[in-house]
Amino acid sequence: MSRPLPRVVVLAGGVGGSLFVRGLREALRERHPGVSDAELAAAITVVVNTGDDLWLAGVRLMPDIDSLLYRLAGVADEERGWGRREESERVSAELGAWGVGWPWFTLGDLDLGTHLARTSWLRDGASPGEVVARLSRRWPLGATLLPMTDAEVDTQVRTAEGDLHFQEWWTRHRASLAPLGFDNPGIEDARPSAGVLEAIGAADAVLIAPSNPVVSIGPILRVPGVRAGLASASARVVGVSPVIGGAVVRGMADVCLTAIGVETRAAAVAAHYGARDAGGLLDAWLLAEEDAGESAEVAALGVRAEVRPLWMREVPLAARLAADALDVALG
Ligand code: FO1
Fold first, then answer.
1. Contacting residues for 206 by C-beta, under 8 A, at least 6 apart
2. Number of neighbouring beta carbons within 10 Å of residue 32
3. Cα(155) to centroid of ligand 1, in Å?
4. 167 lines ligand 1 (CB under 6 A)
5. 105 lines ligand 1 (CB under 6 A)
6. Residues 183-195: pLDDT tens digits?
């Protein structure tokens, strides 16, 4: 290998985050022919949201971690959007018959194997970070996954009907109950999991995936120490807009943004993150060609605005986007 691999940290949620990370892995493979998965795993660190995590039917679920794990491993059910390919649901049907779990939340049999293994290790005293490392050893992922924290700080959604776990608000009510706010109880006492601050400090590039800014990236930034780590990082921090042409690409980020008073516009999300020079997060922001008219607004924040194609419908497009983000960060 002629050039050394850059050390890249990505802050990410599940589905959008995993496509972006697959793109990044592909981009580094293209630039560094012959690079091994182990070398890629040493170069790419993904700090993953754990606000979506929950206890259900006696097991611990980590949906965003598992999205990344399964998608990087190539065993995900990409059509459905969660869980394993070639899945069956016999255990879920039995749990339903016993009235255990949530009837609107399906736990596939193969997926339950992951949850049981994880819960077993947690009960033996392993930290969530250690558990994620053990799960990651099964497949050559070409990236290192780190939960944002080892603390249980599941996202709660405040609504007029009361507080709901994020998963109930999303999978049962499909975000139809107007959120009044999002909380991660206990997060003020949480610490970043082992390796997070070290990876940020040693990074050549920090990339914010086009994940939900409120319930995916938001909880990561709320873990005490993460913002300070990013502020003092020697690497540039480059964000990719999750908003294209005034609409979110997938999920319920628009509902979440509205709830916290942020418009669903690329420049408004950049303003929400803020310029690193002004105590915020970003050195640069990638906007879609559809939103090129908002570049001046982003630049006025003190953030370098870069217009690029942002659609990542498949891995080659995600690879081009990740390469663009990397070039902005390293250039
Ligand atoms: N999403 C659903 O819409 N319905 C489900 O039944 C469901 C089950 C499920 C089980 C394990 C898991 O890791 C994720 C699961 N998801 C399900 C996806 C998940 O609730 C969310 O889409 C993400 O957390 C949002 O990013």
1. 8, 9, 10, 11, 200, 230, 233, 235, 236, 237, 238, 329
2. 18
3. 14
4. yes
5. yes
6. 999 999 999 999 9
